[in-house]
Design a protein that fits this description.
Blueprint (H helix, E strand, L loop, with lengths): L1 E8 L5 H15 L5 E8 L6 E8 L2 H8 L2 H6 L2 H4 L7 E6 L1
Antiparallel strand pairs: 1-3, 1-4, 2-3
Length: 94
């Protein structure tokens, strides 16, 4: 089991677009082998900061998802100019 923490900083005014895209990502994750669950949290002191915590059976399963065409088809952060910077991801092994 592996937990992935994904930190995102969103441009002001783009929160609703980001959250809508995230819902599509979660729907897709639900179809991927190895995915257990995912939750999104919003920083109460900085409304543009989000943490997404995703549990997978293995890091390989997660990487397979992130590198899949399906994931690329669902999100295009650059096209919408949503992100304020490069996301940071942390992997926690169980």
């Amino acid at each position: 089991m592996v937990t992935i923490g994904m930190n995102y900083k969103i441009l002001p005014g783009k929160e609703e677009i980001f959250e809508g895209a995230f819902k599509k990502v979660v729907e897709l994750m639900g179809t991927m082998e190895g995915h257990t669950k995912t939750n999104m949290y919003r920083d109460i002191s900085d409304q543009q900061c989000y943490l997404i915590v995703s549990e997978w059976s293995s890091e390989e399963a997660y990487r397979g998802f992130i590198n899949s065409d399906k994931f690329g088809d669902v999100v295009d952060w650059g096209k919408e100019h949503i992100l304020a910077g490069r996301p940071s991801h942390t992997t926690y092994q169980h």
